[in-house]
Inverse folding.
């Protein structure tokens, strides 16, 4: 009796919060609704003798994931939602598609030939409900599913490195920056006038030619005047 | 009180998971913000986890905790997926300065 009451409370909470998460206007509110959904799903796990999974659900989903979601929301800003135009026809079509999928799934559930009546009276289930199932789950994970377990850790490592590489700012060695380094090395070893000329050629190529012409003309005239003096 | 309210069976959990899955599907299809679509995907994955755990509890208890083990693997994969997905969202936002999926149309013919 108590179990069923708890189930219905969590069921109403989760479905209501899921609807809120999908249909609310503000993204921040959607993320907060999502926390409620994940918490009530953890409640279902407890009702099904999955203690470890319930805590893992709270730590990974309800706390970790939503915090990352909130970070992403802060990075991308939530102003986009307010000004977007809602395509009503498109929404209706998508709603019909989702309702159709829902009807198919429900029909499959209700017409299934599997015996879906509860048999929680089995000895193992009773043992789980009194002693918890974490010990057995750990034995299963480290013996029978040892290799998948290690592969999962590898996947997490790859995802972590991948996320850092993808989201990090690009301090790449772009051609212009490499050119800058080369230019600086050249300038350090060249005499000042040549250095200035090279820099000008690099930074403003169209003006540099005129400047070169002017300086050449100047040196020519200087030469000519000194020759005339002699 | 009717029997289906006072006695919670496997059907209740399956139907509930189906409802949550469908709500997530609606969210994936109708939302245009990338972060919200990722949220809806996470909702769908959680709904699948409810199924696994409930089946494990009601049908295969004598065979051990296979369902819970698979639920843990799904949890791991979805965490990895969300991390990479959100990193992609941030990189996309940096490149295109928007989080609206309709604006990501460089590959659209």
């Amino acid at each position: 009796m108590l179990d069923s009451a708890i189930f219905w409370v969590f069921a109403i909470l989760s479905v209501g919060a899921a609807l809120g998460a999908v249909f609310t206007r503000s993204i921040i509110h959607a993320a907060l609704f999502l926390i409620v959904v994940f918490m009530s799903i953890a409640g279902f796990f407890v009702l099904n003798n999955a203690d470890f999974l319930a805590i893992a659900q709270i730590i990974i989903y309800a706390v970790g994931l939503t915090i990352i979601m909130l970070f992403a929301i802060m990075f991308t800003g939530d102003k986009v939602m307010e000004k977007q135009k809602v395509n009503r026809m498109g929404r209706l079509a998508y709603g019909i598609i989702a309702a159709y999928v829902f009807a198919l799934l429900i029909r499959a559930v209700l017409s299934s030939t599997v015996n879906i009546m509860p048999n929680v009276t089995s000895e193992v289930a009773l043992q789980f409900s009194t002693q918890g199932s974490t010990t057995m789950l750990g034995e299963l994970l480290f013996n029978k599913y040892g290799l998948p377990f290690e592969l999962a850790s590898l996947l997490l490592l790859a995802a972590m490195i991948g996320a850092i590489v993808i989201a990090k700012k690009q301090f790449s060695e772009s051609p212009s920056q490499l050119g800058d380094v080369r230019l600086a090395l050249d300038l350090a070893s060249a005499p000042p006038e040549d250095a200035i000329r090279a820099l000008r050629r690099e930074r403003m190529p169209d003006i540099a030619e005129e400047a070169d012409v002017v300086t050449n003309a100047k040196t020519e005239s200087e030469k000519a005047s000194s020759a005339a003096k002699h | 009180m009717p029997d289906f309210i006072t006695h919670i069976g496997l059907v209740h959990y399956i139907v509930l998971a189906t409802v949550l899955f469908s709500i997530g599907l609606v969210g994936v299809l109708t939302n245009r913000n990338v972060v919200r679509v990722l949220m809806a995907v996470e909702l769908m994955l959680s709904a699948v986890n409810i199924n696994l755990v409930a089946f494990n509890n009601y049908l295969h208890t004598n065979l051990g905790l296979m369902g819970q083990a698979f639920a843990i693997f799904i949890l791991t994969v979805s965490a990895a997926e969300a991390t990479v997905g959100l990193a992609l969202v941030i990189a996309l936002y940096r490149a295109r300065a928007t989080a609206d999926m309709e604006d990501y149309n460089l590959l659209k013919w």
